Write the structure tokens for this entry.
Amino acid sequence: VNDLRALDALLAKRVSMRALAVLRIAAGLLALQHLRPFLDDARRGFVYRDAFSHPYASWYPELPRSLYVALLWVGALAAVAMLLGVATRVATATTFAVVAYNVFLSTTHVHNNRAYLVIVLGVLALAPCGRELSVDQLVRRRAGHELPADAPGWPLWLLRFEAATVYGASGLSKLVDPDWFGGTVAHGRIVEHRADMLQHHVPHWIVSLLTNRAFDSFGAKVVIATELFLALGLWSRRTRYVAVWLAVCFHVAIQVTSSVEVFSYLAIATLVIWAVPSTHDRVLVLDPAVPGHRRLRTVVGAFDVLGRFRIEPRPASPVVVVDRDGSEREGRAAVVFVASRLPVTAWFALPALLAPSNRGCVPRLVEQQLDVAR
Amino acid sequence: VQNKPVTRVRTIARRVVFLGVIALQLLLVARGYRSDHKEFAFQMFPEASSWQADVVRVLPNGDRLPVEQPWDGYSWAGLVRDRGLQDPAVRHHADAGVDNQLAFLREALDYVATHTPADTQTRYYEARVTYWHNDDAPRTVVYRSRPRPEAGT
């Protein structure tokens, strides 16, 4: 009973839906990208059942051709409305319904990347993710009845579970497969592309290294370790930034080497859900009279889509960031820290945080509190 | 704007959906180890396997005609355009593993057998498949579509 109460409390805990609002925009774009080939085919007069398709169940409803094509267009329009945040709840649910219906029409439609898209859209349809970064929000604000930006966190926890499961399931399936663990699969796949690499003028020594059996065996273990680390490391705040940084590298590598439709973009976009679900709880102090500070303010205003910072003007002050725990960074260290918390610059700035000069946290408030306590 | 009061029903519904989705996801991951089609199991890049198939139409007199030759207004590539099945005679990588690829090929044979009404000659379709599971020695299997009762009438 206590466990259930604890679970209910966790599911009901109100958190910021900002990350899901950001993901909603990305997922809307990716849903459009996903639907595009189906719409292109439809424009040429072709739909799935004009060629090999295999329904999951005989009872699954199949629409007349014209209705099916109309449904695809409804899905595309809903995706546009979803990313703009117009009638967000309805638009997101409609996008999810159309994409899911279309994917489940035939076994030939189901791919891992599409399954992940269905999951993300499904969770977004459950969450009030239109209260920020949306036309709905602007309209409500003007009408004077803005909705609270926070909501019960359970859709966010559910999506975190699903995102971690994608990495965990993939890593586990490789771990228990002797051919994968031993490097046979990696070696086979790379050897398959040897001619392509040479044709694209990849240096011989690189091709030779990549097709080396021992190298591929080592590489396979690195891939498995990476996937399993991502599945677990994203959960802990101690390892989360490393995991996010690695995940971006991992997905860029997949995108460059494989054809995975929207998967890489979706997986990178979904990383925003691992941001702490609270907003404007870090303070960025800037001097409005300093041009460099004003530029930083513009950058933060444009790219702080997760709402990490509250900007406070303070004349004659250096750039100062006060973190959630009260610790402070000044000058260059503060700028690097800010960049490490903005989604578009985080990947570049996170390694810079390892430099001792950028790690210089000055827990002034903590020290002051300790002084008072003394 | 006030938040909605949380009712007992809402609390239980939230719990059921949350735990239900987690249980279903774990079930689908486990199912992926046994199923040909591994929906929602997220087994990415599972194999380095490849396959090749000689697909023929078998006529009532026993003639076996390759499907690369169009027949009665049909073409294999026009009927089967997805999942790497459009040119089976060429050796292909099995994207989602050999079991998955062979399951799609079997389903494609049945699809073609049941979606070519103008063809009154073909008794059934047959695929002689050679596959290489990772770096194992090649294996050969033969699949037949369901019989076509309209053939030879």
